[in-house]
Amino acid sequence: MSEAAVETTGDLFLNGALRLRQPKRGHRAGHDAILLAAAVPAQSGDVVADFGAGVGAAGLAVATRVSGVKCRLIEIDNDLGDLARANATLNRVDTEVYVLDVTANADLFTRAGLHPDSADVVLMNPPFNDASRHRPSPDSARAIAHVATDDTLSSWIHSARRLLKSSGVLVLIWRADGLAEVLAALDRGFGSVTVLPVHPDSAKPAIRVIVTAIKGGKAPMTICRGFQLKDETGEVSSDAKAVLGGQSIVSIRPDMPQPRK
User: Fold this and answer.
1) Helix axes 152-163 and 179-186, enclosed angle (nearest 10)
2) What is the rounded distance in angstroms from the CA atom of residue 80 to the CA atom of residue 66?
3) Cα 103 to the chain's mean position, in Å?
4) Strands, E, within the chain: which ranges?
5) What is the predicted pLDDT for the residue at 129?
6) Positive or negative, the Cα torsion across 46, 244, 172, 150?
7) Of 35, 47, 178, 234, most Cβ neighbours within 10 A?
């Protein structure tokens, strides 16, 4: 993809440590991607797969924070996939990009080079807006990226379960009011669930949940103290500043369990 084909912007994340080219209009990376990446308990040498990667923001943010990660970006849109490849090169990250529907069957995944039981971590920010309550964007790519169907969550989690190794980690971000849907979708094959509510500030209900689960995990569910995006003065909270600057949530929140063996 070239800027002659679509107008892009150059944007800095993680205090400038991550540089991304992304479309000027349509689906663009934001705080959700960086919050998701900050919750990923990756270690050097891990294969980390980012489902619905877009231009690669979340997956590349993980690889920027954790050196030695092998990043796999799965994205259905060809143009965004091209940008993800360019961003991986720009940031010198060991990355493979697959233009593939996340909900494709096992044969298509395998033919693309994504074999069952091959990933240590899968992260995902699936389309999560309820179509009955959300007016879709006239931009088709943005609409696909934001509006869920009845089986979006279950089909994405099914694909993650197939790709993950035993005891592999799934990390996802979703609407807070849809937590019951997440837990129901995780009921087959996942356990040791950790839920982190994300609040705009201390006075408002959570708007997001970041959910971590282990393939084959058996530990009871943990619900963590809420993560506040703004403090009492209305400024960005110290925790949010740390995460947007490139720190992991676990490193600044000792109350959160680290879901790795």
Assistant:
1) 40
2) 24
3) 16
4) 8-13, 18-23, 47-51, 70-75, 95-99, 119-124, 129-130, 147-148, 164-175, 190-199, 208-215, 222-223, 227-228
5) 54
6) negative
7) 35
